[in-house]
């Protein structure tokens, strides 16, 4: 016969006369009962749960179980799982941790283009246009900038469509470069 993971002991208290002690998750846990029968019923139910779910299942916090179910329900209409959501968010957090300020990414891009043989004029123009963008978001990292912010900034320039497209092209170059450096993640 196996040794139970739960122990019932008498307890000195005006109303609670028995205590069930267990050490499943590495620390002692206690649950108090009025009668020995209540304590024995609790132990039988917990032993069945332990047998059915194993030690990890029995010690898995209810709050996490509820959170997981809530998350799964929210993701179901999109055909996604909790694992998909965690992977997506983890990649976002990793990119945010590796990200650099916009002005640093801009400088690295211009240095890269210069070393690749781009003309001085191109590097100068690229620096002017991207410099205006960086000035609009001085304290932000590459990973923090959203597509909506880029669109709003471009719309606010009040330039001719061809000039605005030149800015858009240079920003696409900057963000593509930042993605290859893993400063941000490419979104679909």
Adjacency order of strands in the biggest sheet = 1-2-3
Fraction of residues in β-strands: 5-15%
On the 0-100 scale, what is the average pLDDT? 88
How many strand segments? 3
Biggest sheet details = 3 strands, antiparallel
Tag the structure with descriptive keywords.
3 strands, single chain, three-stranded antiparallel sheet, 3 domains, 7 helices, mainly alpha, 188 residues
What topology emerges from the helices and strands here?
Blueprint lengths: L5 E5 L7 E5 L6 E5 L2 H24 L2 H14 L6 H17 L3 H14 L4 H17 L10 H10 L4 H20 L8
Antiparallel strand pairs: 1-2, 2-3
Helix pairs in contact: 4-5, 5-7
What features would you describe in this structure?
- By secondary structure, the chain is mainly alpha-helical.
- The chain contains seven helices and three strands; from the N terminus they run βββααααααα.
- The chain has three domains: 6-60; 61-95, no CATH class; 99-180.
- Helix 4 (102-115) runs antiparallel to helix 5 and helix 5 (120-136) crosses helix 7.
- The longest helix has 24 residues, at 36-59.
- The chain starts with 5 loop residues before the first strand and ends in an 8-residue tail after the last helix.
